[in-house]
Amino acid sequence: MGLGFIPLGVGDAFSALRYSSCVAVEADGRWLLVDCPHPIRKVLREGSAPSGAALDAGSFDAVVLTHLHADHASGLEGLGYYAHFVLGRRPVLLAHPKVLDGLWAGLLEGGMSEVADPATWKSHRTVLADYFDARPLDDAGAVRIGPFEIECRRTRHVVPTTALRIRAGGRVLGISSDTAFDPRLVAWLAEADLFLHETGEGIHTPYASLAALPAAVRAKARLIHYPDELDLAASAIEPLVQGRRYEVP
């Protein structure tokens, strides 16, 4: 029992040092992938190798997508094609209805709407359901997949985005996803046993706002989606290390 996770990437959208932020969450030998940056199979291989987990595209009960910005969703095309042509399956994809509304037309259709038979080069049209089993998250309550129960809450971001609380093994992990500083969101996340919070400038959450949180809240928090220039050694909140396995206390 218990709940663990591996941060496969911890960088922000502009990082030159680290993969874009995504997290593999595990309970009872079952896995969720939270967000899906490109190149997803390389991210999975290199991000899980230090812990010995050896994750690949077929390792997950579902992919949970927080929003459509490329640093969180650019790997979906590669994942969808690999699952379709190599694994012969449709991955379960969970996201808020507002995220699902824009997924095909706003992100995937341009590259995935036609496939061709290489023997004849005759093509046919495809749709999202040919590649993914897309299912909505629910603002009003938890959605269950395998051993996991997933709650979502909208964040302050420029496109529809959701924070998550993932419950399994008697523990709860919170993930902020991208957001401006929002004390009410922090309070919602801090109801979990441990939560991961982004930090950055502009439309993101300034590090100073998180460092000023009460000590009891900071003790439950870990930093993710942080910029390359963040002074990790001086941080008042523990920064996650890409590829390290963590247990939710």
What does the model show?
The chain is an alpha/beta fold. The chain has a single domain, classed as Metallo-beta-lactamase, Chain A, CATH 3.60.15.10. The protein has 8 helices and 16 strands. It has helices spanning 40-48, 70-73, 76-87, 97-112, 128-131, 183-189, 207-211, 215-220; strands at residues 4-9, 22-27, 30-34, 62-64, 92-95, 114-116, 123-125, 133-136, 143-145, 148-154, 162-168, 171-175, 194-198, 221-224, 238-239, 246-247. The chain has a 7-stranded mixed β-sheet with strand order 8-5-4-3-2-1-16. The chain has a 7-stranded mixed β-sheet with strand order 9-10-11-12-13-14-15. A two-stranded antiparallel sheet has the order 6-7. Strand 3, helix 1 (40-48) and strand 4 (62-64) form a beta-alpha-beta unit. The longest helix is centred in the middle third of the chain and has 16 residues, at 97-112. It starts with a strand and ends with a strand. The mean pLDDT is 97.
Summed up:
The chain is an alpha/beta fold and 249 residues long. The chain has a single domain (4-247), classed as Metallo-beta-lactamase, Chain A. It is 25% helix and 28% strand.
Tags for this model:
Metallo-beta-lactamase, Chain A, 7-stranded mixed sheet, 8 helices, 25% helix, 249 residues, alpha/beta
How many angstroms separate the termini?
Answer: 12 Å
Backbone shape: globular
Could you name the CATH topology?
Metallo-beta-lactamase, Chain A
Strand content: 25-35%
Helix content: 25-40%
Low-confidence stretches: none
What value does the Rg take, in angstroms? 18 Å
- Backbone structural class: alpha/beta
Number of domains: 1
Order of helices and strands: EEEHEHHEHEEHEEEEEHEHHEEE
Number of strands: 16
Mean pLDDT across all residues, rounded? 97
Order of strands in the sheet with the most strands?
8-5-4-3-2-1-16
DSSP helical segment count: 8
CATH superfamily annotation: Ribonuclease Z/Hydroxyacylglutathione hydrolase-like
Largest sheet, if any?
A: 7 strands, mixed
